[in-house]
Amino acid sequence: MARRAASFLVPALEAANVGLPVFPCRPGNTGSLRRQKQPAIRAWPAAATTDAQQILAWGEEHPDANIGIAARGLIVLDVDSAEGERQLARLPDFPPTAETSTRRGRHIYFRGLVPSGCVGALGDGLDVRGNKAGTATAYVLAPGSVVGGFTYCRSNDLGIAAAPPELIEAVSQKRRTRLDPEAPILEGSRNVTLTRHAGRLFNAGLKSESMLEPPLQALNRERCLPPLPEDEVAEITRSAVRNFDAPPWMALPHEVGRWCAGDRLSAKAVAVLRCLADHADIDGRCWPSVETISRITGLDRKTVFPALDELRRAGRVSTEPRPFRSTIYVLSPLCPPSGSSCTRNGTRAGDGGPA
Q1: Could you tell me if residue 210 is inside a domain?
Q2: Cα separation of 136 and 180, whole Å?
Q3: Same structural domain, 116 and 13
Q4: Each residue's pLDDT tens digit, 234-287
Q5: 8 Å CB contact between 58 and 25
Q6: Is the pTM above the cut of 0.90?
């Protein structure tokens, strides 16, 4: 039996009628699930429109297309699992607003501008599709779109509510944490952030538990919302002292380029490596989407892929594909050519690492 496709025109006009800029995406009856969500036109952020004449023209050219909504002035929470619902429940209560049922969860719409740009996610299963100062950096599929045989549909008849300040703060939070040393550290990023600080302090010379734990406990009390239990911070301290001179991506994520200076990587590859390093955990694993890497580095998507290939060829990054989810990237623990001591569990970081 052939898979169903969407009918582009009517749902697109309905979305445009309430001020949502739309554009055509691939039909829902061909290709992989990922392909069914991809734009059918180039430069969709600028091309998305509420103009009826343009939408009519697209309807003739792409009659079975799915309907993309550019998040121009929008913040859309994409809940796609039970864990995503749990992550959402940890956030402050938000006003009732328009929602769409999706194949794996729901989209929750708000209107609001994020001056610094939105983070890609607020936790596992809770992604953010948003904007930077009003310019769309992501998109969602509108009601009427079909993915994997499931038709997206409105969950209620509410209009789109204005994003409360708490939501704008939350979706900006991780980026602010990197830039603003006074920004609070929210649930979901507390352990990784404290581990990063432990690595920096350890490499700065605080190499005993008695020296390292007090500043970590103070950081936890002052910036973590809510603070971690003191015994959990103590375990982070013990782990830092026991397990590393920190890998370069934990201790110096913004200077990681110096750890691969002998590889003669291009500037674009180094920019992507720094982005991955800024997301990596202590094992060097991270899973930012290509869209996230593109947004943070300022590189076009088509440039990100060759840069990732260059890093793989250099042995700096390996990948673990995940169907329908972002690829897991694993950073190589190789030390710089000078052979400086970068150890973990008492072993030189270059021993046994990816070739």
Answers
A1: yes
A2: 24
A3: yes
A4: 988 888 777 655 555 554 445 565 666 667 888 888 888 888 887 777 677 888
A5: no
A6: no
